[in-house]
Amino acid sequence: MALSGKRILLIISGGIAAYKSLDLIRRLRERGASVRPVMTEGAQQFITPLAVGALAADHVFTDLFSRQDEQDVGHIRLARDCDLVLVAPATADLMAKMANGLADDLASTVLLATDRPVLAAPAMNPKMWAHAATRRNVETLRGDGIRFIGPMAGEMAESKEAGVGRMAEPLEIVAAVEEMLGAATPGPLSGRKAIVTSGPTHEPIDPVRYIANRSSGRQGHAIAAALAKLGAEVTLVSGPVNIPDPSGMTVIHVERAEEMRDAVLGALPADIAVMVAAVADWRVASSADQKIKKHPGESIPTLALTENPDILRTVGHHTMRPKLVVGFAAETQDVESNARAKLERKGADMIVANDVSPATGIMGGTRNSVKIIRHDGIEQWPDLSKDEVASRLATLIADRFRQG
Ligand code: C5P
After folding, report:
1. Is 308 a catalytic residue?
2. Where in 158-260 does DSSP place strands (E)?
3. Helices (H) and strands (E) in the chain, counts
4. 3-class DSSP state of 46
5. Of 23, 12, 30, 142, which is closest to residue 86 (Cα–Cα)?
6. pTM beyond cutoff 0.70
7. How far apart are CA 252 and CA 196, in angstroms?
8. pLDDT at position 94
9. Which CATH number does 7-180 carry?
10. Is 328 in the pocket of ligand 1 (CB under 6 A)?
11. Is 193-402 assigned to CATH 3.60.20.30?
């Protein structure tokens, strides 16, 4: 069965579409998923916990302050002991809470505490869906990595009003769940664990200044997404970037190289490590606790630097070394020979090398032209988008595992 063994936490909020959630529970269970329901106060005005619990064959969680429930499971475990959080129906009110990080009942608290992928099936009056406030909230939620199914166009249940706002049908929601969980067809990397680093690191000089490399995080994030798409269980360790977290993976946000190293080592063991981050080579030996002031006439401060840990090298020589270790090499000259040397020094199996001299426009751009350097040869790839580079690389990695 497509969803066999998958654990869905189903949050039902208060809209008339809640009646469809009863059928949704049946459809999910038919496919082998277990469904653990959480209902808001509002949801209980439309359907009863008794009906929901009977169909789900599980306890229905409704109260953040229930002593019994907290003792048995607890809202944090509720938020994490699942493969996916499904919000159906997702009301305008619950989405507003999610977008603003409010946590004043069990449903919103679980949504704030979860580190699992979240799929929302909105349902509301078309005017509410079209309202600027809802538009803003949806935009924010998408940026936060929340996925949406619907709403659909059609006639509303409660009025003769037509427009966009009707909750997607249970089978459409089930298909989106299957797609998100990679359950539609098991990917070639399913069962494999991957760690990806992305973005720059920021090394503080004082509380307001830092040293950093130029990096948008686009290539690293795209690689994390491509590996997840092939079924890998991905942990993305990202430095400070201005792009959203990809969905369907664990994302750990860090600032400094030492934090990045700790997060990467904490995610071992893994089968695959792809270190894409532009880690700062040096940090300030002793960063100031207070802002360093500028005093006219006084000498300009000098910064004493110290070396940062080399994360790729640490992973490449670790006792828990992943089977496949991939590094990147951003060079402005002698791309190939520098990358070859890196392959040896860092204990990597593969180096993805690119020329980032300013004329190429690669830094911060959306395209990339790379060479793949392995112990047994070199491959030059054509000029591709960063997403294409990511999906080719993920396929190459999957091939390596297929060949053993
Ligand atoms: O030595 P260089 O910085 O050019 O090597 C690039 C590769 O090493 C990239 O894969 C990068 O993510 C990784 N790296 C690292 N930790 C560092 C420096 C680089 O993981 N401190």
Report:
1. no
2. 162-166, 193-198, 202-206, 209-212, 233-238, 250-253
3. 15, 21
4. helix
5. 12
6. no
7. 10
8. 98
9. 3.40.50.1950
10. yes
11. no
| pLDDT bucket at 121, cuts 50 / 70 / 90 | very high
Write the DSSP assignment of 309-367 as a string of letters. P-HHHHHHT-TT--SEEEEEEEESS-HHHHHHHHHHHHT-SEEEEEE--GGG--TTSSE
Q: 270 by DSSP, 3-state: which?
A: coil
On average, the pLDDT of the chain sits at 92
Q: Residue 125 to residues 10, 173, 368: CA-CA distances in angstroms?
A: 22, 19, 44
pLDDT (0 to 100) of residue 404: 72
Ligand 1 binding pocket mutation candidate from 261, 306, 328 (most atoms within 8 A of CB): 328
From the alpha carbon of 276, which atom of ligand 1 is closest? 12
* Structure-block tokens of residue 280: 């700062």
The CB-side HSE value for 361 (13 A sphere, CA atoms) comes to 6
Cα 18 to Cα 47: distance, rounded to the nearest angstrom = 7
Residue nearest to atom 5 of ligand 1 (CA): 329
Q: Residue ranges per domain, the chain?
A: 7-180, 193-402
First to last CA, the chain: 28
CB of 329 shorter than 6 A to ligand 1: yes
